[in-house]
What does this fold into?
Amino acid sequence: MTAGIRLRFDDTGGTLAAPSSFGFNIVPQDAAAGTLPYINVAGYFALGFSTNGPQPRKDENYNYLDNFSKVAGNHSLKFGANVERFVFSNPYYSANSGFFNFVPSGTYSSGDPAADFLLGVPSSYNQGSGFFVDVRAWHYYAYAQDHWKVSDTLTLAYGTGYDVETPLENLQYQGVGVTSWVASNQQSKVFPNAPSGLLYPGDPGCNRNGSPTTHWAHFSPRVGFA
It folds into this structure.
């Protein structure tokens, strides 16, 4: 005979409780967020915590900017700069306390998910190990312009802008959370036992952004007259 799943529901007052407190031999990756495993009985009901969580995501934006204007004779000069720093931190746990799925298409299913649930025969079980997203990026913008009143009937406007956004820099897993595949048979020097063509930050052509950081020559000249 197959032993059925026995559930014991306790009044925890809304606080989280380890899967073991419900009778499950499950060790969550994030023990502090352990709770009843997610149990889906297709067509009948679902129990437990979400399969996607917890996710205490934190976004931070730091902005530094200034503008400067000066009138010098027939010239109206303007200059400015804006620097932004983006920080994104997100511990992410998927199926932290486990996920039992009862569906009629399972290999050993009786054809009725509710009966499978009572018999303790899930179609599948999965549990995530969790990971941590930790990335940074920069945005640089600057400009300079001049309105030159050449005469009472002619004004020239000219200047240039500069705008660069860096790709996300991945800091998770000690900075080697990025991998780069190359077409050649280049061997990684960071991890010499890695498959040929698989590179990591520190290898030529691969960094924590996954590719060359940025094309820096993003100037946008402008000119006009009135």
Observations:
- The longest strand covers residues 131-151.
- Residues 19-167+211-225 form one domain.
- Residues 1-14 have pLDDT under 50 and may be disordered.
- The CA atoms of residues 145 and 159 lie 4 Å apart.
